[in-house]
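Posting this for the archive.
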Amino acid sequence: MRDGSRFVVLEGGDGVGKSTQIALLSGWLGAVGLPHLTTREPGGTPVGEAIREIVLGRSDLDIGPETELFLILAARAAFVRDVVRPALAEGKTVVADRFSLSTLAYQGYGRELDLDHVREADDLARGGLRPDLCLVLDLPAEESRERQRRGVDEADRIEREGRDFRERVRRGYLELADTEPDVELVNARGTPEEVHERIRDRLLARFPGVFRGGGATDAQQVG
């Protein structure tokens, strides 16, 4: 990793506005002249996108919790090797939609798999790489569900899970934000611009020498 490059992840339940905030964040990073890449998980590589289609799109398949976990971690291993590490080595800031915290929240809390086992498997998949900062966009589960209903896209396999599942995922994120290093909660209520300002303030406070401006603009999107 070169000086100035950072790995930042936006996390949270479905419907909290991660995609919108990543687009706004990319625009801001470009405006201040920071080379960066935006990407998503699972995805970001050909292998990852194929796995994403299975995990999220194939509601006709009976995918058990353990199978789901290992599919996602297989995508993560390719993501780390082929996307994140090369971009960081080039001095780019990487902004990802989901990473390991999602696995703990969804497969650990949501699917109720043993958290220690999930952590061990995830450690292997990410090869020691940790985000510099995870920002969890937080909304009550029913508010995020209502936002999701107003969207134009059809809900995917995991988004169609019931209220109990969504509540477990949110509880997971809240508990993880209290216990995991370099994880911060961001109130996702308000306009997209208001939430963006909160995210920007967190980045400026955490990395003042990085996000106040830099080299030539170089925005790239993967996935």
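The mean pLDDT is 90. The radius of gyration is 17 Å.
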